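To illustrate the input format used throughout this study, we show a single complete record. The first block contains the structure-token representation of the backbone; no residue identities are included at this stage. The design step must infer an amino acid for every position from geometry alone.
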């Protein structure tokens, strides 16, 4: 948790709106073309009972090494905007899901060379309706192979369960032969 002690700019709803706008620009440290809000890491900006601005973030997985950097980047953005005092809280439940990613995040990932999650995860209806309960399945579900973000071919193969980070897998397109990361659905 990060706490700043500089004075608060204003104690109105416009402060919350301004904080959301400022935090919309904070990039993910591992995938800088998407913001933490587009990825669904930024969960809430609210007033705590003591009046302090509280920013709630949720990691893409519980061991995500980027969370301390994200909290620092959130704090820096709020300091620069004069939106203190604030508190950054990391919340693990409910667990992050790719359903929280925006359509813009999917488009930006694809343009960056990372295949966005496939299947029901990240669907427009899931994003619009917010967090949903997930059915726990003990049988693995078969998802369609991700399409190559470079040529669009669905003729791809998984090379490794883990890619450049634990939340991605390493794939290769069998048509254009290019390797790419695939953001795994959760």
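Output of the design step:
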């Amino acid at each position: 948790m990060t706490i700043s002690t500089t004075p608060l700019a204003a104690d109105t709803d416009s402060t919350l709106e301004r904080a959301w706008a400022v935090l919309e620009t904070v990039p993910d440290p591992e995938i800088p073309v998407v913001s933490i809000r587009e990825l669904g890491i930024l969960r809430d900006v609210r007033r705590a009972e003591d009046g302090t601005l509280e920013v709630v973030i949720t990691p893409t997985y519980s061991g995500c090494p980027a969370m301390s950097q994200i909290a620092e980047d959130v704090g820096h953005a709020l300091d620069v905007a004069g939106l203190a005092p604030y508190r950054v809280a990391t919340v693990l439940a409910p667990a992050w899901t790719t359903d929280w990613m925006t359509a813009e995040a999917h488009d930006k990932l694809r343009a960056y060379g990372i295949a966005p999650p496939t299947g029901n995860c990240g669907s427009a209806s899931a994003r619009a309706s917010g967090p949903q309960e997930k059915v726990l399945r003990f049988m693995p579900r078969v998802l369609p192979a991700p399409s190559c973000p470079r040529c669009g071919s669905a003729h791809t193969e998984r090379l490794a369960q883990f890619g450049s980070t634990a939340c991605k897998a390493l794939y290769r397109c069998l048509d254009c032969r290019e390797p790419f990361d695939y953001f795994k659905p959760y």
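Structural context for interpreting the output: Strands lie at 2-3, 42-47, 53-57, 86-90, 114-115, 156-160, 168-173, 179-183. The domain at 2-90 is CATH 3.30.300.130 (GMP Synthetase; Chain A, domain 3).
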